[in-house]
């Protein structure tokens, strides 16, 4: 049993996502009662580690920003923890957990599971020294690293993520992240409006969104006559989400060799936020 680290899941938080828990939440449909974490595969020997401890170890890496090899000794072996984290990325488990928890949070806020409006924005972050794949230079923010394209609902909950080189333009990267959002199908059936900032302006981008995704793009610009900090409607929602992510040291700088792994860490960070809210 590990020490009581601040990143550990409590008993109530763990019960929301434990593999053996198939109970509905907030009146969920029968199809929503499937376990969030895959059960052990049939055949072979039984699992030798507790999934609760594995999740605590992953959240420790997320919040403290340490390397896998430097996990405290009271967690399971770092190779085991890393393998679970990687396998859940490849089979879509992290995204499945994230989608289900977001539906529950929206239900708790008396919102329908599928949002009607979304906000898109970008965040450029520096990469670690050993990262050399999908790295570019953002001339506007003068940052060499990667750019995170994130779409959120009006509560600030993440809908889709796309991580690429910082040199990627907002319009091209915006098409990718919105295409990923469109692929969710029935989960975004009510979506009709996308709020963007000035970086996404342009007839080609807006026409693409309208023709391919059938959504309306609304641009929120900063008033030119005002100086200093200005709280912009809708735009502040996604900025708040970036603020939530900054509390996780693993996300303050991009340490991942693969952009897909960086995307997964964003989902894991949101999972931790949502499960703490629900519990």
TrEMBL record:
<dbReference type="InterPro" id="IPR002559">
    <property type="entry name" value="Transposase_11"/>
</dbReference>
<feature type="domain" description="Insertion element IS402-like">
    <location>
        <begin position="34"/>
        <end position="98"/>
    </location>
</feature>
<dbReference type="GO" id="GO:0006313">
    <property type="term" value="P:DNA transposition"/>
</dbReference>
<dbReference type="Pfam" id="PF13340">
    <property type="entry name" value="DUF4096"/>
</dbReference>
<dbReference type="Pfam" id="PF01609">
    <property type="entry name" value="DDE_Tnp_1"/>
</dbReference>
<protein>
    <submittedName>
        <fullName>Transposase</fullName>
    </submittedName>
</protein>
<dbReference type="GO" id="GO:0004803">
    <property type="term" value="F:transposase activity"/>
</dbReference>
<dbReference type="InterPro" id="IPR025161">
    <property type="entry name" value="IS402-like_dom"/>
</dbReference>
<dbReference type="GO" id="GO:0003677">
    <property type="term" value="F:DNA binding"/>
</dbReference>
<feature type="domain" description="Transposase IS4-like">
    <location>
        <begin position="114"/>
        <end position="272"/>
    </location>
</feature>
């Amino acid at each position: 049993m590990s020490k009581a680290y601040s990143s550990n899941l409590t008993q109530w938080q763990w019960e929301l996502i434990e593999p053996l828990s198939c109970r509905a939440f907030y009146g969920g449909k029968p199809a929503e009662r499937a376990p969030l974490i895959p059960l052990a595969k049939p055949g072979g020997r039984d699992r030798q580690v507790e999934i609760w401890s594995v999740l605590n170890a992953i959240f420790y890496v997320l919040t403290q920003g340490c390397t896998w090899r430097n996990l405290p000794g009271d967690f399971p072996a770092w190779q085991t923890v890393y393998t679970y984290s990687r396998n859940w990325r490849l089979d879509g488990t992290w995204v499945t957990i994230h989608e289900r928890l977001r539906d529950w949070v929206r239900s708790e806020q008396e919102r329908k599971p599928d949002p009607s409006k979304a906000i898109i924005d970008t965040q450029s972050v520096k990469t670690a020294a050993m990262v050399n794949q999908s790295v570019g230079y953002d001339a506007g923010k003068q940052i060499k690293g990667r750019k995170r394209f994130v779409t959120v609902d009006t509560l600030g909950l993440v809908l889709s993520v796309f991580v690429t080189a910082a040199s990627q333009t907002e319009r091209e990267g915006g098409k990718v992240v919105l295409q990923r959002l469109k692929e969710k199908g029935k989960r975004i059936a009510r979506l009709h409006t996308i709020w963007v900032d000035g970086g996404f302006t342009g007839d080609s981008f807006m026409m693409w969104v309208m023709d391919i995704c059938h959504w309306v793009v609304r641009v929120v610009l900063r008033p030119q006559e005002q100086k200093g900090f200005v709280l912009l409607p809708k735009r502040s929602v996604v900025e708040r989400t970036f603020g939530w992510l900054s509390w996780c040291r693993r996300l303050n700088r991009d340490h991942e060799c693969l952009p897909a792994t960086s995307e997964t860490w964003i989902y894991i960070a949101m999972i931790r936020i949502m499960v703490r809210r629900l519990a």
